[in-house]
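Record peptidyl-tRNA hydrolase, 265 aa.
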Amino acid sequence: MGVSKDPTTPVPDSPPVLDGASVLDGASVLESASDPDSPFRPEPGDRDLAPQFVLPLVVRVERAAPPPRTDALETAARAVLVMLGDERSAGEGEWARAMRDWQDARIRKVVRRARGAEWRRAEALPGITVTGKTAEVRVFPPVPLDGWPKDLARLQVSGTDLDDPEPPADADSCAPVLWMNPDLDMSAGKAMAQAGHGAQLAWWELSDAERAVWRDAGFPLAVRTADPARWAGLTAGGLPVVRDAGYTEIAPGSCTVVADHPALR
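=>
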């Protein structure tokens, strides 16, 4: 697993509490958010009046060798963390203004797919490619909701259907795990965006020192579907929870991901 650009980076400035958004411009909310200006709150607020931005992610899906679903989800989650932890996203970095604008509004993530020449054109744009076991995901600095670069805007959103050839191994209980709701049926693209939300929530809940440890280790994590018998306990256990606004695929208020980082237990 790796990152195409892997500078030694300082821990970025602590961001404000965030409103997660899902693939296809859906919005998600943090269940426990109490700040009246939190972008996680489902009610309209000042953040809805701000210019809206989106964090683009592109997954490489070649016809002959699509990545396994779980590997793609984990790589997308790590890509979000790599962008958050990159020195260019903090302080006076070249992406810092876009990252701040993105976080000041409703947080949105959109996952698109590319292959062949499409992927090569995407790689030519400023961003970071993160690799998993076989998956490749490129994350780009936020762009205006209606201002996508043409080489990204032309990529397909829907139809990103991936499968696991074998059931994934049990997650390491000592490592971060993003638990997916066992009762929801989401496309791979939708699930990748939700996994990214969960990873971002965990990142923001950690202290600077805890973030640095996770970043320096390469952001190890697992994405797994929770046992149905455990799901209610996970959502009520005080860990960060992502709820979807229901713009695409699933019902409003659906709890999609629980971010289970050892430091947050």
